[in-house]
Amino acid sequence: MDNMAKVSRSALALNRAGRLALGACALALVAAPLATGTASARGASRTAATQADDISAFYRARGGAPLWLSPRSGAAAQELVQLLATAQADNLNPRRYNARGLQRALDAARTGNPAAIQQAEFALSQAFVTYVDDVKHDPGMGIIYVDPELKPTPPTAQFLLSQAASAPSLSDYVQNIGWMNPIYGKLRQALASRLYRSDVERRLLTINLERARALPSGGQRYVIINAPAARLYMYENGQVVDSMRVVAGRPDPIAQTPMMNAFIRYVALNPYWNSPADITAKKLAPTILKEGRAYFKNRGYELLSDWSDHPRVIDPMSIDWHAVAAGRVQARLRQKPGPANSMGKMKFMFPNSQGIWLHDTPEKEKIEDAARLQSNGCVRLEAASRLARWLFNGHPPSPQGAKPEQKVNLPQPVPLYITYLTAVPSGTSIVYFDDFYGKDRQALRIASPDQGPSLFSRLFG
User: What is the mean pLDDT of residues 242-264?
Assistant: First the structure.
């Protein structure tokens, strides 16, 4: 009888004994915790005792049945040990997870000894939960969490282990790092397998891996926008079901589209466009000075009294447009709904203080450009109606008459992740995009003696 057959037969016999002995096993392992490493103890991290209690509760709920060494688990246990041994790819210290000790425990379990199997089971689960606890956190790279629920946080041990147990293949779940976003898993695989041609590429992969920590896992529906690729992706069950081109913010600092996690909550049909004050001064005011009152009639603009939620429409020639063009006076211009409106027929709202949203556009020619970083920060969509159809489960709303700003709530808010990935998995390779916003250069910059540490050295030094 080979070793794995011994493990399987012994594991099947553990159910009754496991219920009786698991608590003592847990306490013994807590007394000899996992090796400490460079991973810092975060405020939200669970204590060793709480973690042990949660793991014990998981096994009690399944009658003591093994997870990692069950007949259905295939090579999952060995793959987990290998994953932990290469935790440096996650910017973590592999010693923290005591991969060598886990390998010894796994080798002992292969003799078929029930006590050895039980000890290996708990040790593997403890290391797994600790590792995920370390991996799932805010990367601290300037991401705006409009909705705090979309900030990455480690799940409870019971939830995490139950999720692993329910995976169709535990071996595939571990191999694909199923508790993280697929983009993270593939970038990590590239780092662990050394699929890079230079040290610069390695560091770029590491930087992008950090950004990918903020992306979601699981099978829920969500949207990802990657500004460097100027593309939007719709996800279901961890797979891209549709995508489209977008126009994102210009590279100049005031116009960059920020990294942001938020819930898309509603669509506004027949939207107004409120011109930003700087656009009004630089682009609109000079033309108004040439065309006068006709500009407002021909192009559907209104001058508003102020920047409040309930402004009055006032005489467009009641303001000094020379002063507006010179930047001495701010003017609030609003474009009414219509064919020329810069928002097109609809905009998708995830209310935020940065004034960022997704919207339709009448300027379809800009979608065709290879370089599509031309907006003032908001995101213009290639096919807004297609996104609406997906967000509304095949039943997009239609405007009821010509009334402006018709608000229609989504059936259920859908998470949106606006990210900045310059290294993206594509099949078995990595595609690199230009660092338009200079975020990679900032991270890679070597700190000079009179500067503080660069972002890269703070993260990975």
Answer: 96
